[in-house]
Protein: Aminotransferase class I/classII large domain-containing protein
Organism: Acacia crassicarpa
Amino acid sequence: MEVNGPSEWRFQANRHLIAASSRCVRKVVGSLINSLGNEDERQAIFLGHGDPSVFPSFRTTVSAEDAVVNAIRSGKYNSYCKNLQGLLPARRAIAEELSRDLPYKLSADDVFLTSGCKHGIRSVAEVLAGPNANILLPRPGFPDYEAHASFYHLEFRLFNLLPEKGWEVDLQSVEALADHNTVAMVIINPNNPCGSVYTSHHLMKVAETARKLGIMVISDEAYATINFGENPFVPMGTFASVAPVITLGSVSKRLFVPGWRLGWLVTNDPNHILSKTGVVESLECCQIMTSDAATFLQGAIPEMIERTKEYEEFHSKVIKILRDTADICYAKIKDIPCLYCPYKPQGSMFMLVKLNLELLEEIHDDMEFCVKLVKEESVILLPGVALGLKNWVRISFATEPPTLEDGLDRLKVFCQRHFKK
Ligand SMILES: *Cc1c(COP(=O)(O)O)cnc(C)c1O
């Protein structure tokens, strides 16, 4: 049958989605990888994103792999998960594990299982987006917050982190930005991209500021176990009696398995403010709308957590590597005149470095710096613009030490080549 075509097709993709997703790290790193030249016979060195799972030193524990295999083989986890928040034994195990560092006990009801931390970020944006609501986000930050806020029409305002003060939150700028439509502020601790770990004192100040403003704190603790400096990691939930906290976490960085897509969103709310204001109910609605984390991964959680001894061995091994690579990175950057790092990382896998463009010939901004670096040296860094901080770059030091050294040596050669005569 011949049917005449319509004069025009009426459908169109959601342009808003394209605009929002262009902010994500994946997008920026992807475009840099595409500009890798094929003239360079050397291996490309990826210091742009934080996924060291491909390196032998960061291969996850056998105990975690066993837990997943056993869960699949048991045949008990082939169904949809019947509980909205996730399987009860998994939530109970996570609640217990996270309670070890808190002054009160979490219950399984405080835990929502997610497909990774990113899913938690999305749920937060979904739940908080109201007609005029706004959320306060850190600059530099993790761009997915802006992407999801923007997609859900949740206005975001950026407060500064202060490089000379260990990248602490500029609480004055938080107060200046907030108004009666502000609903929450986000902190990331240990911090991506800055590598900072906040002191207990600073977290208390954050909680007090949130209380004064009547807002909640969203604490992204994806790197909760990745700290190797002098400040011990303190969960934001410690101060949840001052202001309510939603904590996000996942196995991605804890076990170096970002491909497993398993995380949690936890309400730290000893005063039941999140339930009274309907936030908990809305979180349940989010869970209804989206698909659960794979049931067998949920089923594997109790065994993963029970076998702590094997995890602890693995953990001390990777922490040692990261402490060493952070040292290497800091020392090598110090030795390159046009780069400046105000803070030696204490946690996460990243270091932020400022470019002194006045010393460089024909490089006008961080993006151009990164593009030329890819083309000439096959080294990939993340330009600061992607994180809201122009003319900085983020270096991931979570690689095998010889690879990192090679990458940083190439970076030095690149800077020397472009150094103003
Ligand atoms: C990696 C990362 C995430 C995403 O974690 P997934 O669990 O893999 O979704 C979220 N927040 C920060 C700060 C991250 O670095």
